[in-house]
Amino acid sequence: xxxxxxxxxxxxxxxxxxxxxxxxxxxxxxxxxxxxxxxxxxxxxxxxxxxxxxxxxxxxxxxxxxxxxxxxxxxxxxxxxxxxxxxxxxxxxxxxxxxxxxxxxxxxxxxxxxxxxxxxxxxxxxxxxxxxxxxxxxxxxxxxxxxxxxxxxxxxxxxxxxxxxxxxxxxxxxxxxxxxxxxxxxxxxxxxxxxxxxxxxxxxxxxxxxxxxxxxxxxxxxxxxxxxxxxxxxxxxxxxxxxxxxxxxxxxxxxxxxxxxxxxxxxxxxxxxxxxxxxxxxxxxxxxx
Length: 289
Ligand code: SF4
Description:
Elements lengths: L7 E5 L6 E2 L7 E3 L2 E2 L24 E5 L2 H8 L8 E3 L10 H4 L1 H11 L4 E5 L8 H4 L6 E5 L15 H13 L3 E9 L6 H7 L6 E6 L7 H12 L1 H10 L3 H19 L6 E5 L19
Parallel strand pairs: 1-5, 3-6, 6-7, 7-8, 8-9, 9-10, 10-11
Antiparallel strand pairs: 2-3, 4-5
The site of iron/sulfur cluster has 9 residues, from loops.
């Protein structure tokens, strides 16, 4: 695994560990780090007001007191569920030194608060015993088809992610494979489904949201690497709301057909509103029927 020696690690203190969230996966979210070493170009978190003013791929804020603050908050707040990693990767490389996520998991377990984890890191495999302590816990593990790796800088390789997923299944921990962002005309769902370890029961597909996630930059990279024609096709999907809705309907139709080949998997189609910010009102239970 590559580590960036130029990464600036800053120890910071935080006033708040738990924050109310509009993401419908939980009522509170928690992010032990600010910024993310993985540096995905499509990252929506970079629009977050707490991150916008730093270079999130060069500077990682380590919220050194977060566990102590969490313990304090849990005396007054009783979350139904906590979402871990809404604006950062909880299992990025810096975690191997500071173990903030580990402390957080232990505390949430102690207070019997269930959590949902968003991750694309194979380092999560070192934490599965902790996560398995509460049967309500769930992991949303991101996998993307090969062309998307053009837009990822230092994420763990596909094989490493698949190995971690296999271990999650073995431990019987709640799991959903998250295919996101699904970028029109370059994401190839069929290839991805073929390499999934057996035992995966849920897969969601989230259509890329062009109002966040570095759209112009991504188009430039795609034009350079995959050609102008591919770039043109993608931008035509996002040119008007009608074109976007037409594409999302086609995606849903394709999923209806595809699911027949995978009867053991439930598929969920996540389509952000054309003019809406990503995290509002996405229905994660929008099952393909
Ligand atoms: S791993 Fe997640 S938080 Fe980190 S850069 Fe990629 S999308 Fe953003």
